[in-house]
Amino acid sequence: MSPWFRALMLALMLATAAGCAQKTLVFPATIPNPQANQPKRPPPPPPPPPHPEFGQLRPHHNYYRVISVGPYREHFVVSFHKYETVTATYQADPADPDAPVVQMGQSFGFFTKRVTPSSDLSPALAANVEAIKADLRQKESPQGDIDVRHMGTFRAVVIEEIVARQADHPRSALYNLRTTLKVDKDLTEVQGQAPFYMGMGGSVRLDDRSGFYDQTNWIDAGLGFQGFAQLWKFYRQPHLYNQQTQDRFEAELLKAAAHLTHKTAGPTLAQLASEQDTNLLPADLETRRPFIFYVNAVENGRRQSSATSWIMPARAFGGREETRMKLSIPTARHGDVIFDTSVVMHAAPLAPGLSGDQKVPFTLDYSITSNGVAGSKPIHGTIQTQARIIIDGPRIHFIGLDDGIPAQNLPGVEPYRSFELHLGFMGVD
After folding, report:
1. DSSP secondary-structure letter at 42?
2. Range of the domain at 245
3. Is 350 exposed, middle or buried, given 0-12, 13-18 or 19+ CB atoms closer than 10 A?
4. Cα of 179 vs its chain's centroid, Å
5. By the 8 A CB rule, do 70 and 155 touch?
6. pLDDT band at 20, cuts 50/70/90?
7. CB atoms within 10 A of CB 95
8. Whole-angstrom Cα distance, residue 58 to residue 390?
9. How confident is the model at residue 159 (pLDDT cuts 50, 70, 90)?
10. One domain for residues 343 and 400
């Protein structure tokens, strides 16, 4: 560095220091918070209460109601092509030939069943067919021909089945199934399921009021086999129900449909024949039902092999319930390896007088052992958890386990070191 450049840098440093010495640095006592003046966010509103009748549904009991009753109409299904095959449904008023046809909905990829071919349609329906084709050409610009088929003349009546899981809690789930039936004009005969009307189902919550109606329209008859969905089975042939059960259910269904149509009061929930007992569980609910127990071999997030068996947890209270399984797993070092699996459930006897929905201590002892692999150590372990059950006198209905079952490792056998244990639940169907 040259002498003159060194002198210049020294002068700049001195000038900067002198300038700083003349300034006073002031720090604020508090750092401003940009959100300090923002209004506080109000707490979320409490969930709405359950419907006054829905809040009284008993767990694992089956309930039925009428959702809607359609007008007496000609029903048509239409197929056309617009990038892909599309199916639409239409209705027409048989009492007014000049009334416009109405499209009820459309979908693709679901329907393959065909009914009366277009060429077999009666001349009386010709005007409806042409009106439907004209409506589609205006709205959809279909590519190619339009196929119109007649499904019949009937009222579309939608009914629903509800199975409550824990009806005393406003956020608990209800399992519901809906199906659409063909009913005659005067609501005197159920003619089976309406063709090309898709059923639907799933879980809803008691505080989801979108599914509630001022008039509940209960059907005062049950199908039996309670605790599991029966509605779709009832209208599937062959079904498990005798003619007496079928006649009683459909007679009450037609009464409920008439109440809804004429806006008259039907039976309240408390007045249903099914509610005239004090049992916590339905009389025909299978409380000693089996569950599926899974053992999965997992590697890199993928299940390589699984074994399943049946187990009945309700037997574990005051006793023990055991299941044994075998898994055959291909391993890189040892070829195919057979693993023996044992799971034992046990729990203390239930305290006298215990009743209703309860959570009680529950134990699972498990072991997984490989056959013929030197140096392999078996897994032995115990899982302490809580079981949720419903106690109704001498009957115990096992609902499930509160905590999951953690994955375990079997040392010495690679690459398959991870195992999962699962208690599988039988579906409501």
Report:
1. P
2. 48-282
3. middle
4. 16
5. yes
6. very low
7. 9
8. 12
9. very high
10. yes
Alpha helices in 30-161 (DSSP H): 126-140
Q: How far apart are CA 150 and CA 313, in angstroms?
A: 52
Position 170 confidence tier, pLDDT thresholds 50, 70, 90: very low
Contact 326, 295 (CB under 8 A): no
The residue out of 242, 262, 282 marking a domain boundary is 282
**pLDDT over 70 for what percent of the chain?**
74
> Which amino acid is present at 419?
F
Structure tokens at 130: 């042409």
Per the domain annotation, does 42 fall within a domain? Answer: no
Q: Global pTM?
A: 0.73
Q: Which two tokens stand for residue 107?
A: 């979908």
Q: How far apart are CA 117 and CA 150, in angstroms?
A: 8
pLDDT at position 252:
97
* Cβ proximity of 204 and 225 under 8 Å: no
Residues in the chain: 429
Residue 68 belongs to what H/E stretch?
strand 62-69
Whether the CA torsion 174, 175, 180, 184 is positive or negative: it is: negative
Residues 260 and 169 reside in one and the same domain: yes
